[in-house]
Amino acid sequence: MGASADDGTVGEESADTDAGAVSAAKPWAVYLLHCAGGRSYIGISPTPHERFEVHRTGKGAAFTRANRPQALAAVVWFENRSTAASMEVRLKALARPAKLAWFERFAAATASMPATLDVGLASLTSR
Questions:
Q1: Is residue 16 part of a domain?
Q2: What CA–CA distance (Å, rounded) separates 53 from 28?
């Protein structure tokens, strides 16, 4: 996987836990960081607040070492790692304004219950 550039660079962290059957059963998040220079970073993690701290201290992805995170802007929970990773790939294909709008619309909806990929995909087209 890796980072891709647009008007707000987006990337993905490497797995920070084992990707076995145990990981598949627990929720994973797609998260949005606002970084220095008006840039953005998207990653996935089962512990996005902890991962934000790793990025913030300069020990995360290369992109966030060069463009220090200023805020954990949004967290959207999905039912498992595979679903979060699939959603992240789709978000990377969007223009920056569409990515930001998706997070704004969808983050609150998953605060209490993780979403399925179908729900996440439907939210990409419902504007």
A1: no
A2: 17
Look up the pTM and report it. Answer: 0.77
C-alpha angle 6/7/8, rounded to 5°? Answer: 85
Per-residue pLDDT of 36-51, as tens digits, reads 999 999 999 999 999 9
User: What is the C-alpha separation between 117 and 43, in angstroms, rounded?
Assistant: 16
Question: Number of structural domains, the chain?
Answer: 1
Domain of 94? 21-125
| Amino acid of residue 21 | A
Sheet of 69-78, strands arranged across: 39-45, 28-35, 69-78
Residue 36 belongs to a domain? yes
Say which CATH number the domain at 111 has: 3.40.1440
pLDDT tens digits along 59-111: 989 999 999 999 999 999 999 999 999 999 999 899 999 999 999 988 887 87
